[in-house]
Amino acid sequence: MEDNIQEMYVKARKAFKEVEFWPQKKVDMMVQAVGWELQKEETRKALAKLAVDESGIGVYEDKLAKIKTKTLGTLWDQRGVKTCGLVEEDKALGVRKYAKPIGVVANVVPCTNPESTICCLGLSSLKTRNAMIISPHPRTQGSSYLTVEHIRKALKKVGAPEDLMQCIKHTSHAKTSELMANCDSAVATGGAALVKVVYAAGKPAQTVGAGNVVSIVDETADLEDAAYKIRLSKIANNSASCSSENAVAINEDVYDNMLTALKAQGGYLCDTEEREKLRRYMWPDGTHLNRDIVAKPAVFIAENAGLTVPEDTKFLMVIGEKVGPDDRFSGEKISPVLTVWQWNDFNEMLERLRNILKFSGEGHSASIHTTNDTRRVEMALHANVGRVVCNMPHAHANSGGWTSGLPATDTLGGGSWAGNIVSENVNWKQFLNYTLLAIPKEEYIPTDEEIFGNYLEKYEKK
Question: Is residue 449 domain-resident?
Answer without folding.
Answer: no
